[in-house]
Amino acid sequence: MAGLDKDTPIPIALTVHQQSRVLEISYADGATFRLPFELLRVYSPSAEVQGHGPGQEVLQTGKRDVEIVSIEAVGNYAVQPTFSDGHSSGLFAWDYLYRLGANQEALWQAYLDRLAEAGVDRDAPMPEAGGHACGHHH
């Protein structure tokens, strides 16, 4: 399978649970993870979230109620979810999803820590896209 090394965990089942807002993913090694949509959204591997280098990450907020409206397979190595806030540029490779699942608690705590450090509420709306700073219209 192109693009995967032999140790990449391959999922055997993937279920989007709209009601509970979790992506359930089961791997051939027996691991099953239930990843909240919010976690997937705030850890989206897209440049829009991750930035273009270390320290460039864009802290995501207001995603508690985000939903996955559709999810598409990309080749046989990743999925690309479309979120209800319009975000759809994240390609979640199988090994990335596995890592999110395996480290879910630590990642969630890291997210909460980053919110606290930034002094931002988890439910605060995101600034308007496009980076328009307020105050230029005097």
Q: Brief overview, please?
A:
It is built from 4 helices and 6 strands. It has helices spanning 37-42, 47-50, 94-102, 104-118; strands at residues 11-17, 22-27, 32-36, 68-74, 78-83, 92-93. The strands form 2 sheets. It has a 3-stranded antiparallel sheet with strand order 1-2-3. Strands 4-5-6 form a 3-stranded antiparallel sheet.
Account of the 3D structure:
The chain has helices at 37-42, 47-50, 94-102, 104-118, and strands at 11-17, 22-27, 32-36, 68-74, 78-83, 92-93. It has 138 residues and is of the alpha+beta class. It has a single domain, classed as NE0471 N-terminal domain-like (2-Layer Sandwich), CATH 3.30.2020.30.
Order of helices and strands: EEEHHEEEHH
| Count of the domains | 1
CATH architecture descriptor text: 2-Layer Sandwich
Major β-sheet, in short?
Answer: 3 strands, antiparallel
**Number of helical regions:** 4
Strand order of the largest sheet: 1-2-3
Beta-strand portion reads 15-25%
Please name the CATH topology. Answer: NE0471 N-terminal domain-like
Q: Helix- and strand-based class?
A: alpha+beta
Fraction of residues in helices? 10-25%
Overall CATH class: Alpha Beta
User: Radius of gyration in whole Å, from Cα?
Assistant: 16 Å
Query: Could you tell me how far the N terminus lies from the C terminus, measured between alpha carbons in angstroms?
Result: 57 Å
- From the spread of the alpha carbons, the general shape counts as globular
Mean model confidence by pLDDT: 89
Features:
138 residues; alpha+beta; NE0471 N-terminal domain-like; three-stranded antiparallel beta sheet
